[in-house]
Amino acid sequence: MPVPVKNAEHEREGESAVGFARLGMALADWSQRWFPDAFVFALAGLIVVFVTGALLGIAMRDLVKYFGEGFWSLIPFTMQMAMIIIGGYVVATSPPVHRLIRRLAGAPRTPRAAVAFVAFFSMATAMVSWGLSLIFSGVLVREVVRNVRGVDYRAIGAAAYLGTGSVWALGLSSSAALVMATPSAIPVALLKISGVIPLKETIYSWQSLTTAAILIFAGVIVAYLSAPVSSTKTAESFGVTEGLEVQKLEERRAPAEWLEYAPVLSLVVGLLGMAYLAQVLAARGPLAALDLNTYNLLFLMLGLLLHWRPRSFVRAVNNAVPSTAGVLIQFPFYGGIFGIITMSPLSRDLAHFFVSFSSTGTYPILVSIYSAILGMFVPSGGSKWIIEAPYVLQAAKDLRVNLGWVVQIYNTSEALPNLINPFWMLPLLGLLKVRARDLIGYGLVYFFVNSVLVLFFMWFFARTLPYVPPAIP
């Protein structure tokens, strides 16, 4: 894909754009030339943490040991994150959901309306699952650009990613909230600090739901205003000339394949999984039943039922697996960062730093800024939370800040760097046939707006919540 050049047509397009639209186009052109790959950020983050530890006087031999011992420590969590991507992909590409997407794609009539439309569904589906959001929105974009001409493909692609860069961690797939609500998932050292924090104190709190509603509303407005009225950077200019079709199953060729095409196995196993989930829901209640394992089981069983035939389900899984490559290769390096921070005095020193430089009133703002910056190097809500939680929650206890809201401060602010860090874009990029640098320019527009909103509301809502001492098991 060629690097865009400023020809006469492009300049006329820029002259017709105003405000956010002109800013979005300028930033998109810049990012296409200068933004690096996601893996670079993981390696840079590891080096920064290692050098910081050395500068603080930790022996190099110990830092190397902590890196090695932590390298594979996130393997169970890595598998859970990969399964979220696979589950979301399987559901979004099932025939019934694909038919729904095609119907929805006929709604917008103008380029700006199309971008705002995709932004809304990206954020709405992200409240259910970030994995579903990435695939659902990507398929929706491919269908929308078939119907609406003149849509800036960079703008609508960035809108498809908006859910993962704004509200996903305030929804049902919030890694940090689910970890803190799942006793078996909380590392022992962290459990001694925070105890279990139920979902009613995090993603189900009215403060969190209000924040999500505000960010969704603001995201749709910015998406509409930042999109050009008409653009030459259409899907066709990126070599995308048709929608994303769901492949039909080939004809059965041998008797041995009969069960692969028969829905009876999918139906029985799918209903078995749903029955188990119903038992868990009845035993724990709707607020406590959700954790990473039950969440992934729900999406896999739902995908199995929606695909109806085992062959269709397996094919969807095969297509989804390449989208997990970034998670599988980068999470071990985040495990190395986790090992250096948690096994060395770095965690204790960072907690003391937060306490010494903040008060009960300013702590929410400090955590927001810090979590957003760290997210550039560790772009994972779950693994970064495991790294950050010990000293962030200890400092919150010392300053008597509500621990449940600290989790939500983290959730809201850690999503911000997703808008400009290409790591979680990988599944979407494959669907859209673009590069991360094609989308990050418009992502910067959302980043500037959301940063202001997040800092204000994290500080404002913190004032409405009292400190509650944790129940340490």
Keywords:
single chain, 473 residues, mainly alpha, disordered N terminus
Alpha plus pi helix count: 23
Q: What is the N-to-C order of secondary-structure elements (H for helix, E for strand)?
A: HHHHHHHHHHHHHHHHHHHHHHH
Structural Rg: 23 Å
Annotation, overall tally of beta strands: 0
Q: Helicity level, as a percent range?
A: 55-70%
Q: What's the main sheet like? A: none
Provide the residue-averaged pLDDT.
Answer: 82
Number of separate domains: 1
Give the overall silhouette. Answer: globular
Unreliable residue runs: 1-17
Give the termini separation: 56 Å
Fold and architecture overview:
- With 473 residues, the chain is mainly α.
- It has one domain.
- It is built from 23 helices and no strands.
- Helix 4 (60-70) packs across helix 17 (325-343), helix 7 packs antiparallel against helix 12 and helix 17 packs parallel to helix 20 (381-399).
- It is globular, with a radius of gyration of 23 Å.
- It starts with 7 loop residues before the first helix and ends in an 11-residue tail after the last helix.
- Mean pLDDT is 82; it is low at 1-17.
